[in-house]
Protein 1
Amino acid sequence: MNKNYFLTVLLTLLALTGFSQIIDDDFESYNLGPLLPTAHWTNWSQNSSASNNAENIIISSTQASSGTKSGLIGNGGIQDAILLLGNLSSGQYTLEFNMYVPSGSEGYFNIQGTIPGGSLSGIWNSGDIYFNQGNAAPGVGIDLATNVTFSFPHDVWFPVSIAFDLDSPSHTYQMTINGTVANPTPTDFQSDPILGGVDFYSASSSTTAFYDDIVFDVTSLSVDEFSKEDVSVYPNPVFDRLNIKSVSPVTSISIFNILGKKVKEIQSDNPIKEIDMTSLSNGIYLIKVNANNKTQTIKVIK
């Protein structure tokens, strides 16, 4: 991705939503070959020695969503790379990345709970999430925790987004695959209330998947915004019309896509109580609500 463009996008998101980026990794700064553990990459053994390179994600120039490099997971049951997300227990976060699964190949990852200081024994907070499991279901993915299935394309890059809500009583995740919500009802964490990381694993001899442009964000309200009780929207995910419930009359609304581009704006002398979203494509949107000189930005999935 062009760095100047990315900086513009990042500053826009920070200004609009209070997003604070934890991870931004496009793999361009690494040398080709196995990637030794970094600040946010490790492996299942948590062994940083070059003698353990087989488990690490491989920096490849075979495919790239942006630039010339991406991360490759393959080699049938050998690679087991962990993206560290910080052992988080509260807050709301979004992990996004682009993914490429060649025809005749499988992709795989899972969401891990607490990441210990030493070798992992495995705490699965999601099920095994497959893309064309065992090369037996081309174009079909599945989360084995819920048996929810979803569609994805082979031989092209497609976006994956996972929204984590660690403030909900059960802690949940919700995936959007190629612009379509995979699990309309957020899925409860399966094992513990901690978001530790994502395990990118070569689950079988069929596994070959590339990953690029990984971004992990945390969002929070600023001091001049509404409290969570002052304004709410529903349903979320939304199909066509998004209803707004607010203590103060809402007079203007701006809608931005995940890249920070404004896609819709509404202003009215009368209180705005709903938004027609039928013209917007499926995906994640940031709804900036303005009322009584206060703002709140709410993430909405369509």
Protein 2
Amino acid sequence: MIRTTFRTPGFGRLFAGLTASMFGDSLMLIVLSMWVKTLTGSNGAAGLTFLWMTAPALLAPLFGYIVDRVARRTFLVVANVASAAMMLPLLLVHDAGDVWIVYAVAFCYGTSFVVVPAALNGLLKEMLAEDVLVEANASLSVTREALRLVGPLLGAATFAFVGGGAVAMVDAATFLCAAVAIAGLRAGDRPEPAGQPQHWRAEVVEGATFIRRTPVLLHTTLALALALLVIGFAESAVYAVVEAFDKPVTFVGPLLTVQGAGAVASGLLASRIVRRFGEPATVIVGLLVTSLGLAGVVAAQQTWELLVTVAVLGAGLPLVIVAFNTLLQKRTPGRLMGRVSTSVEVLTTTPQALSIATGALLVTLLDYRTIFALMTLGTFVAAGYLALTLRGRLTMTAGSEAPADPDVVAGTVLADPPTVTTLLPDQEVADETSWATGRQPEPSR
């Protein structure tokens, strides 16, 4: 199936461009918070970098409305060029008084993380047959995690020797590479056909309405939101972990590399697991593995034990990301892909932002083991919630897929009904970087 995916016209070119962009991510994301930590000496201030990065999700539905009205290819080219330009202000950062510039760039980075995956989801749905979407998502996920084997180390080393400005320029160059690659595609050259005319406010919230009326997507999204409500604590707590093990701040780089190794190992199996058990069940497995890794951080006494548990933590993430992105792409009509993707961003990133802000406070009050114990419990509860709400609906195999009835959203029959990806025998018709999360569930920028 992976060979079939890469034989699809244009996918190899798209993959090459996204790989360049993901390499830039692997360098830059850790450097932003590391830069703030170096300038201020504050774990909380470093963690707040990710809060600024998640803040644009509050405007996500409006972004989605725009994404669904512009040709996917054009939107992605412009967005990547703009993302390259947003790196330039980092050349002006020199001391603690310039931290606000890092935060401003983090906000712009977060905007890129909202709009680019939304358009990319639509482009992938347009380019690829539905039965190979999971392989495309798995290929992108494995590549992203593989880059973590070297990216964080290179980013940390470059930052240590020549400063964050150099890393920013490399990241800007990778955005431009992605823009050039996407500009050469033939797919995505025209906007999706619009549905029946509605008031613009109704169209902005149409993605959220679709999620609310699609139980499997709703409950899976809410489960991720529950997990992210606590996992965001790690953005600040990771620096407390590094200090407790008497390591320099740059040791976060090796931790990300080890996490990437675990993620690559599970990512190579992700598409097989999704095909065998279905998307929601795979999300549950991924959350449970993540919970096990978080618990291991609590128990670790030696550095090697910490590294092993971080690898386990990394192994859970691709399962969640690949399964959720495939579920989202299959269940969502093309004309709504931008708005549904960005609505998911709101539902998952808002609790993540609250979690990051809370974590920045908790790291000053609690031992890191207590914080990671809370994260373990919250992630386990999220897996349990999804298992309970979708009980009896998780036994889908590749051979049992059946077409869905047309989904009804806000009283309008959708022009592009999705295919059921999980067996829902009693479903009413139309009734988704950071150290711990790897940047919320999205295929790439």
